[in-house]
Structures are given as C-alpha cells and as structure tokens.
Amino acid sequence: MTDDMDKWITIGVLARASGLTPSALRFYDDCRLLVPARVDASSGYRYYTEQQRAQAVTIRRLREIGMPIDAVAVVLEGDADRAARLLDEHVLGLERRARDAAAVADGVKRALGAAVAASRPELTGTLLADAVDQVLPAASRDHAIPVLRGILVEAAGGSLTLTATDRYLLSTRTLVVPQQADESWSVVVAADDLANAASALRGEGEVELTPTAAGLAVQAGPNRFDCSVIDDSYPDYRAMLAALAPTRTRVIVPRVAFLDALDAIRETPILCTVGAGVLAITGADEQDRQSVPANVTGPEIALAFDPVTLRPALLSAVGPELMLDLSHADQPVVIRSATDGDLTTLVMPTAT
Fold first, then answer.
1. In principle, which of 154, 274, 276, 335 could form an S-S bond with 161, CB 3.0–4.6 Å?
2. Contact between 251 and 333 (Cβ < 8 Å)
C-alpha cells in the first residue's frame, strides 16, 4: 500500500482498540456488519478507518447486552429514532428476563445459603470451564496420535485460544483476556487434565494460566492445578481452516431456534435444506419437518447430518446467532458464532 498509510487501521490495532478479537472482526465482516474499508489485493490484509473504530466499539457494547446482529445493523445505519426504539425494546426485554432470572436466583440462594458474589474479573473459572467444555468433544480418545489427545492453548495479544481436533471434528474457541495482553505462548495440554482443572475451578474468581517447566499451571486464588503437557507438534489448524473449499452458501440462523427445530425431529438421520430465507430440517419421515427463518446468501443446498454430531456443535456455540459456511454436501460445514470472543467448529455431514 502506498497511499497515506496513516489513515488506515489494521485489524490487529482495531481488535486491541475495540476489545474484539481479530477473528470476531472477521466474523462481523462475513456478516456484513463491519466490512473493512479496504482489503489489500495481494496480501488479503483488512484495513479499517478511524470511524470504524467507533463502530467496532459500538458493536461490542451492543453484543455484550445480547442484541441480535440484524438489530445492531439497524443501529449502525444512523437513524437515531429507529435505533432508540430498538434499544428501548431490547432493554425492556432484558429487564423482563432479568426480573425473572433474579427471582430464580434469589430462590436458589436462599435454598443454598449462598452469599452474593462480588465483582467479575475478565477471565473467571466459569468462563474457562465453559470454553474447555466447548472444545473438549473434538479432542481425540485414540492413543495412536498422542498429541491429538491434548488441547492446544495459545495466549497472544490479549486473547486466549483453545483448540482441539481428532481429524474429523475441530473446535477452536477464543476468549478476550485483557489481563494477559503482553503474554505470548502456546502449549499442548492433556485434555483430561485441563478439563478436570477447569471443572474444579468453575465458579471461582480470576483464573491465571502460566506455563511452567512441568506443564501448565491453572490457578484461582490458593487453588492450583498443574496440567501435564504433550511435547509434540500440534497440527496447523489454521492451515486446515484455510484449505477448506470456498464457501458457496452462507447461512445466519438463530441458534436457539435451530436447536429447538433439531430437537423436534423424531427420527434420524436428518436432512438440512437451505433455501431462500429458510433452513428446513427433515427427518427420516418426510412429514417430520421443521422450518427456521434464516438469512441465506448463495444457492440452495441440502446436507445430511447425524444429530449426535451436529447437536453438540449447536449447544456449545456462543451468542444468539450461528453462521454456517457451506461448500458441498460432502464437505465439512464451518459453524461460527461470536460475542466477546468466538467459537469455530467443523462438522462433517453424512452420506445422503
């Protein structure tokens, strides 16, 4: 790039300034919510403007309160009156759900005699445990390739990424961890060790992850767990993702509605057919059919799935919407979701 470099913001700079991860920014690019002002034709690098820095912060703030992507897009369009109406409606819904949640929580606390928790630091035991639970199903149980029995843990640029794959399923989860912004390291941790540590620390306050000579220390207050590491090269999952066939059809669908429709199908396998504005799910009996409204870009496509494989990917997703990138009926489906961080999962269809 030769013209006025000072006016462009790289995706890394924007990520640090906005509190979003680079992969979350790529997610919002693919959603057409925050499209880079410029993409370098030779390198593919994304560049943004100063105005988009403020938009990225607005997106993060709205997504933190659970606003759906389509509503966030309306707010960014700049119609102040319409945006105000949407925000008011959303807050009213949050208040209603908060009252319901508070009533339930009060009842549980009275039953348990629990004290009200204090402040919530950036990386808590619950956040870590949730992230481990989301990628753990992809870790291999086969002893033939020991490194695949581990979870790759990477810290860089204020984010923490957990990745697991058994060569047939792949899940990678990124968390925003501002308190580790200056750290950069990666280790492959025994999946069971990390899962046990994270489970034990669920509900604890701030958690610190520290590589040591013996492995990875996972600590919350006085509670410390030393996880063993697997000293072997982990597969280049980023290259695996980059080598996927180009996306022909992209679908954005409400996660809960997709799950509800899937659970309503009585017989398996299931067939997911993506068409204009809808995701249709059909069971072994063609009369057993559910439809979910969806934002669809690209040609119609049908893929068969075993719910045993598909359902965990939907359950572990983060945020209110899922993005499905589809290429061919016999190729992996990329399922992505994002809030403050992001989760990417590859799911293999079955033969129709």
1. 154
2. no
